[in-house]
Amino acid sequence: MSGKPRLTYLNGRGRMEPIRWLLAAAGVEFEEVYLETKEQYDKLIKDGFLLFQQVPLVEIDGMKMVQTRAIMSYIAGKYNLYGKDLKERALIDMYVEGISDLMQMILMFPFSPPDAKEKNLDSIKERATNRYFPVFEKVLKQHGQDFLVGNKFSWADVQLMEAILAVEEKVPTVLSGFPQLQVILLLNMVYSGARGQSQSDHLPMLCKSHFCGCNFSLTCCFLNLFLGV
Ligand SMILES: N[C@@H](CCC(=O)N[C@@H](CS)C(=O)NCC(=O)O)C(=O)O
């Protein structure tokens, strides 16, 4: 093994996508294995890689980690994206869990039956606009800092950035009533883009699917996604 974390999942965003975002924002290069056959999956189970017979699987620091939330906590802790004390962690956990609830709706969206697509899209827009984004708009406005917790870039910022981009992809005007989020998104993109500068071809899939084709980096990806350049 190269020493880089190895991510095993299907060739899609799904539950692995926030893990990719976190690693990319931490500036950590990773390898990916895409499961294409049932035999590959069965072999992982047989060889004892999947504790609960489920992916995502992340091999990191000699561990075979499963359970998305546990994997992300480990990465956030390891790369100093998880607050300075228990109270900051608690806040980051609350923000991350809230955003995960919104992301769950986006995760399930592709499986909507055709006659429910429009209704489900409206629900995503409604929840983002009325429940989740106002929370972060208010937090940022109240403390006047560039990051959600402790005036320092954290897992919560990464998760929020991913969620905003994922919702915007479906509802392009969704940020129009959220001026703080617009500014913060840009700042965070530049910040995590700079950290992820060394990334080569391993990026979140959301980046890849929008990518313009110049040299891969998180900064290019963000410019492409956000500014359309
Ligand atoms: N709680 C787990 C859920 C993982 C999960 O449901 N994985 C799906 C793929 S996205 C899976 O492996 N399903 C096969 C199964 O449950 O048998 C996590 O967050 O990682």
How would you describe the overall organization of this protein?
- This protein is an alpha+beta fold.
- The chain has two domains: 6-78, 3-Layer(aba) Sandwich (Glutaredoxin), CATH 3.40.30.10; 86-227, Glutathione S-transferase Yfyf (Class Pi), Chain A, domain 2 (Up-down Bundle).
- 56% of the residues lie in helices and 7% in strands.
- The protein is built from nine helices and four strands.
- The chain has a four-stranded mixed sheet, covered by helices on one side.
- Strand 1, helix 1 (17-25) and strand 2 form a beta-alpha-beta unit.
- The protein is globular.
- GO terms for molecular function: glutathione transferase activity.
- Keywords: Transferase.
- Its EC number is 2.5.1.18.
- One of its GO terms (biological process) is glutathione metabolic process.
- Residues 3-83 form the GST N-terminal domain.
What is the overall silhouette?
globular
Helix-strand string: EHEHEEHHHHHHH
CATH fold name of the largest domain: Glutathione S-transferase Yfyf (Class Pi), Chain A, domain 2
**Under the CATH scheme, which architecture of the largest domain would be assigned?**
Up-down Bundle
Summarize the structure.
With 229 residues, the protein is an alpha+beta fold. The protein has 9 helices and 4 strands.
